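Lecture 7 notes: from sequence to structure.
We start with the chain below.
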Amino acid sequence: MRYLALALDYDGTAASDGKLSDAASSAIERLRTSGRRVVLVTGRRVGDLLRVLPRITLFDLIVAENGAVIYDPQSREEITLAAPPPARFAERLRERGVAPLEEGAVVVATHDPHGGVMLEVIRELGLEIHVIFNRGAVMALPPGINKATGLDVAVRRLGMSRHEVVGIGDGENDHSLLEYCECGVAVANAVDSLKEIAAFVTRGANGTGVSELVDELIENDLVRMEGRLERHLVLVGKRPDGTEVRIPPYGRNLLIAGPSGTGKSTITAGLIERLIDKAYQVCIIDPEGDYSTLQALICLGTQQRAPTVNEVLAILEDPTINLNVNLLGLPLEDRPFFLAQLIPGLQALRARTGRPHWIVLDEAHHTLPQTWAMCHRRFPASSARQSWSPFTRIILHQRCWRRSTWCLRSGHHLRRRSSDLLARRLSLVPGQKASGMHRAVWLHGSSAMTSCLFRCSLNPPVRSASATIASTLRATCDGTASTFADRTAGTI
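Predicted structure tokens for the same chain:
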């Protein structure tokens, strides 16, 4: 699955007139049956929510008080994420005639027209408190607390990251919610400012809109949004005319190949940094220790000590950690078997959490050698005799190993004849389809270097990684017959 969780607002979204709508209730049940998680994100206090929402256990977690409190409906555990304002703040508001005035574990809330009085009291007392307006409600909270900060804690408790979450809301205080989620959706009755930042707006209002979104999630995982969430696109480089080349962070395979000194490591490191900047979790399989100094990475393994599969999987449980797996401590002949043992564990982790988002196989001929992958059976005889591997650095993203993205990068020298042959065989222009479900979406090639991005589906999902890559390239080659159309389609 592409999206593993739904985060939704209560009033005006899942609920109408304070009551959870039947359409939203049945939709949430269907979504949980599909294996996804549901988080309610609301400005209400926990006690107030328990009073108006008898079916609280429909939700895996509750983010209450506009992000200040986490509540677990199963264990009834309540976690406060910030300190409340000083008692004199509420006292002074009552002295100024503010009523009704609601005090939660953290939030102090009222309604219009008392927003101005609340701001005056904050200035008068010299407090660091921010005020949030939401459809007539006025909430005072500590700085840095909003729906996004609370949802971030809830998502991490579920073992996920923001990139597996779809958010839906309607009000002014839902801006941070939609901006935090990978795909933010507004219901038809949302305020105009929220509709402007949403990926799309449902046709239905309130619970009907929630049901509409849930049905599409279950049916096709919002496939129509693939490549359309522009804020998540990853910059690869620029074409000669200056236009940018960007790729979606999901469902793409990236092959980087070429002889030494052509900039493969620089390109790969740049892509890794851009992925990390967008908070996508990256795992690098590094046979030669080339990425040990890259910032924002935790390095596992040294030349004296080899990493273990269990260590890799345990570290990747934390969605905020980006991992470099140094294989210098493993004998060369053991590296393919290490990868063969690691892949099933990564597959299970991705099925449960959607992470790691990208996997880089550096110097892929170490973990995917020709003798192990039987690549000579997958490529034309003329190129098989050249004794070279087109597999280089792999950046791999898969949705439970389906619609996967690989980036391959190799340190093997590609002979000129072999490189030209690969360029001729991968004679695709942007958007041109190949056979089956394989499609090259971007290609840069020359006699010295050939780079291409692939999208493929793995079916059945469990396969030898090297055999999958080889079959992807073979399918691409078999599906094309034209000459190499554009040797300068993109520059990095």
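Points to note: The chain has three domains: 5-78+145-225, 87-141, 233-478. The longest helix spans residues 335-353.
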